[in-house]
Amino acid sequence: MAVLELVNISKHFGAIQAVSDVSLSLERGEVVGLMGDNGAGKSTLVKMMAGNFRPSHGTIRLDGAELVMHRPVEARQHGIEIVYQDLALCDNLTAAANVFLGREIRRGIGPLRILDYKAMYRRAGEIFRELKSETPPRNLVRQMSGGQRQAVAIARTMLSEAKIVLMDEPTAAISVRQVAEVLNLIRELRDRGIAVVLISHRMPDVFTVADRVIVMRRGRKVADKPIAASSPEEVTGLITGAIEQV
């Protein structure tokens, strides 16, 4: 059974039809590349999965049961996490503090409870090791590379036992070495049985790490096929409209 299914999902904003009649499914431990030009509907589709938008039409199912979400916190409660392109990190805080932001560990009794920094450093370090990342839990985020920042954002998703992680352009504007780090982080999530949706304009990244590619154009899904059965040339044709649909 698929962990997540979208059935005939559509979304309009007034007269603007952002997503039209899209169906797709995600399996556990699967990486799906979501590609398309600007305005193709990728972000709107992912924001419906993340609880930011309610579909105008269609059904979302999680583990076979219909899922209706009104707020992003409800998606998180169901194991759906999103890592936005800007990462939403606090540069003046440590990596561990960012991982636990809003979910801090405290010790003590009643009103005398205080933040347990030692426990947060320890748990954050464990998560970074699980991700095979060398990110130091005690270092400030502003001192970190793009790859380490991505590790912090991904580590945050693992606190809630995520089933699905949605990633918006995680390799944009970082170096080649840091891109390799982020792709390894995605593989670690996959190996833990977590489904990953990777929104990306970078064809090499999708063809390196994804199991399947979904292409959108003008709000519609025009391709959904295994990476092994496609090619960068075909995907480019689908994105531009040179190829109508496959």
What does this structure look like?
This protein has helices spanning about 40-50, 70-75, 95-100, 115-130, 145-155, 175-190, 205-210, 230-240; strands at about 5-15, 15-25, 30-35, 55-60, 65, 80-85, 105, 115, 165-170, 195-200, 210-215, 220-225. It is α/β, with parallel strands linked by helices and about 250 residues long. It has a domain at about 5-85 and about 160-240: Rossmann fold, CATH 3.40.50. Helix 5 (about 145-155) runs parallel beside helix 6 (about 175-190).
Residues in helices, as a percent range: 25-40%
Shape: globular
SS summary, helix count: 8
- Span between N and C termini? 25 Å
CATH top level of the domain at 4-87 and 161-240 is Alpha Beta
Features:
246 residues; alpha/beta; Rossmann fold; 6-stranded mixed beta sheet; 31% helix; EC 3.6.3.17; nucleotide-binding
What's the short version?
The protein has 246 residues and is α/β, with parallel strands linked by helices. The chain is 31% helix and 26% strand.
Write the layout of secondary structure elements.
Blueprint: E1 4-13, E2 16-26, E3 31-35, H1 42-49, E4 57-62, E5 65-66, H2 72-77, E6 80-83, H3 95-99, E7 106-107, E8 114-115, H4 117-130, H5 146-157, E9 164-168, H6 176-191, E10 195-199, H7 203-209, E11 212-217, E12 220-226, H8 232-240
Parallel strand pairs: 3-10, 3-11, 6-9, 9-10
Antiparallel strand pairs: 1-2, 1-4, 4-5, 7-8, 11-12
Helix pairs in contact: 5-6
